[in-house]
Amino acid sequence: MNNNMLKSILQGVQDGTLPIDQGLDKLRDLPFLDIGHTKIDLHRSLRNGFPEVIYGSGKTPEQVANIFAHMQEHGNVLATRITEKTAEHVCAQFPEVQYNATARTLTWVKNAISYGTTEIAIITAGTSDLPVAEEAKVTCEILGTRASILSDVGVAGIHRLFDRMEDIRKASVLIVIAGMEGALASVIGGLVDQPIIAVPTSVGYGANFSGLSALLGMLTSCASGVTVVNIDNGFGAACAACKIARLIEK
Amino acid sequence: MNNNMLKSILQGVQDGTLPIDQGLDKLRDLPFLDIGHTKIDLHRSLRNGFPEVIYGSGKTPEQVANIFAHMQEHGNVLATRITEKTAEHVCAQFPEVQYNATARTLTWVKNAISYGTTEIAIITAGTSDLPVAEEAKVTCEILGTRASILSDVGVAGIHRLFDRMEDIRKASVLIVIAGMEGALASVIGGLVDQPIIAVPTSVGYGANFSGLSALLGMLTSCASGVTVVNIDNGFGAACAACKIARLIEK
Amino acid sequence: MNNNMLKSILQGVQDGTLPIDQGLDKLRDLPFLDIGHTKIDLHRSLRNGFPEVIYGSGKTPEQVANIFAHMQEHGNVLATRITEKTAEHVCAQFPEVQYNATARTLTWVKNAISYGTTEIAIITAGTSDLPVAEEAKVTCEILGTRASILSDVGVAGIHRLFDRMEDIRKASVLIVIAGMEGALASVIGGLVDQPIIAVPTSVGYGANFSGLSALLGMLTSCASGVTVVNIDNGFGAACAACKIARLIEK
Amino acid sequence: MNNNMLKSILQGVQDGTLPIDQGLDKLRDLPFLDIGHTKIDLHRSLRNGFPEVIYGSGKTPEQVANIFAHMQEHGNVLATRITEKTAEHVCAQFPEVQYNATARTLTWVKNAISYGTTEIAIITAGTSDLPVAEEAKVTCEILGTRASILSDVGVAGIHRLFDRMEDIRKASVLIVIAGMEGALASVIGGLVDQPIIAVPTSVGYGANFSGLSALLGMLTSCASGVTVVNIDNGFGAACAACKIARLIEK
Amino acid sequence: MNNNMLKSILQGVQDGTLPIDQGLDKLRDLPFLDIGHTKIDLHRSLRNGFPEVIYGSGKTPEQVANIFAHMQEHGNVLATRITEKTAEHVCAQFPEVQYNATARTLTWVKNAISYGTTEIAIITAGTSDLPVAEEAKVTCEILGTRASILSDVGVAGIHRLFDRMEDIRKASVLIVIAGMEGALASVIGGLVDQPIIAVPTSVGYGANFSGLSALLGMLTSCASGVTVVNIDNGFGAACAACKIARLIEK
Amino acid sequence: MNNNMLKSILQGVQDGTLPIDQGLDKLRDLPFLDIGHTKIDLHRSLRNGFPEVIYGSGKTPEQVANIFAHMQEHGNVLATRITEKTAEHVCAQFPEVQYNATARTLTWVKNAISYGTTEIAIITAGTSDLPVAEEAKVTCEILGTRASILSDVGVAGIHRLFDRMEDIRKASVLIVIAGMEGALASVIGGLVDQPIIAVPTSVGYGANFSGLSALLGMLTSCASGVTVVNIDNGFGAACAACKIARLIEK
Amino acid sequence: MNNNMLKSILQGVQDGTLPIDQGLDKLRDLPFLDIGHTKIDLHRSLRNGFPEVIYGSGKTPEQVANIFAHMQEHGNVLATRITEKTAEHVCAQFPEVQYNATARTLTWVKNAISYGTTEIAIITAGTSDLPVAEEAKVTCEILGTRASILSDVGVAGIHRLFDRMEDIRKASVLIVIAGMEGALASVIGGLVDQPIIAVPTSVGYGANFSGLSALLGMLTSCASGVTVVNIDNGFGAACAACKIARLIEK
Amino acid sequence: MNNNMLKSILQGVQDGTLPIDQGLDKLRDLPFLDIGHTKIDLHRSLRNGFPEVIYGSGKTPEQVANIFAHMQEHGNVLATRITEKTAEHVCAQFPEVQYNATARTLTWVKNAISYGTTEIAIITAGTSDLPVAEEAKVTCEILGTRASILSDVGVAGIHRLFDRMEDIRKASVLIVIAGMEGALASVIGGLVDQPIIAVPTSVGYGANFSGLSALLGMLTSCASGVTVVNIDNGFGAACAACKIARLIEK
Question: Please, what are the domains in chain A?
Answer without folding.
Answer: 29-108 (no CATH), 119-249 (3.40.50.1970)
